[in-house]
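As agreed, record copied across for absentees:
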Amino acid sequence: MKKRILALVHDHLVPPEDTTGIDILEAEWKMEYDVIETLRERGHEVRVLGVHDDLAGIRPTAGFFEPHIIFNLMEAFAGVTTFDQNVVSYLELLRLRYTGCNPRGLILARDKALSKKLLAYHRIPVPDFTVVRYGHKPVLSKKLHFPLIVKSLFFEASAGISQASVVENVEQLARRVQFIHESLGTAAIVEQFIDGRELYVGVLGNERLDVFPVWEMSFAQMPDNRWRIATERVKWSTQYQKKHGIMTNAAKLDATATDGIQRIAKRAYRASISTGMRVSTCVWMTRDAPTCSKPTRTRTWRTERTSRSRPKWPAPRTKSSLTASLRWGSDGSRSGPDNEHQSPPSVIRTPARTARGSDGKPNDASYFLSRMFSMLV
């Protein structure tokens, strides 16, 4: 069924109507372009609205266009990433259906340590970690042992993550924590690192869940002395991806492994739903038990109900989805992931705007979006 869709994008990422002579694969707005064009190819009527520091245009546009759903591709407001939940809050005040996470989930998911604690409360094992507050020096517990991975406690999209993020001794740990403090200005989270495969799985639905095939990010030409993790360059540099043969395709796993991965993704999803989070989740699978990282805030194609609280009158609802990224140990053990992830996840939008299948087209976009909109309630 044809839908009217209003796409909210950053004003500097509105794709041009005429892309003749433009290398779309290298364009900064290629993710927005892929989403918009895929929706149009599926027969939906799409209107694009660029937003920067003023939400005033949303209400009249929505009133005139009367969209069935808002496709929210905003990751910040006025250039401030921590204001993204306010955009969604405004959509809820207008009682508009929208894709993505609700305001509470966006706030909770921003804190990796808090997210891990929420998952652990639901008895979903998470990798051991410690938080190093800004200006403090790292102190490791007896549970943590090298190698470790150091990330910003709050930043997403692999900001500040590089090969040097994986540390193997106390000196490297101190330097990396200091780097996060000084370059990003946030606290650092130090997690147990387990080398393995980068796997992603999408979950769609509210009460009834629809699990998508497991996807994998591969590093075909990555040197043996480099960590195979989704660093900032892996996610955002097309030149780096081409150089190291970084691709995303269907994961080659046996039925038992696939079932285990999808099962832990659903458990993490349901645990996230109980806290109001509709976000990407990085899931780590250890040998003894599945281990789940924080629900991450990657820009996956997902939708959710507009509010989990009981409104004074019925609020519109859509199906929700989550993308989980997993790491599978090279020795066959199930192990743990990188954050942005996961940014889940996307995978259906794998962690990058840039990661694509071998045919150069966005992975599973048409399939995922068509399934999503066919399930709207």
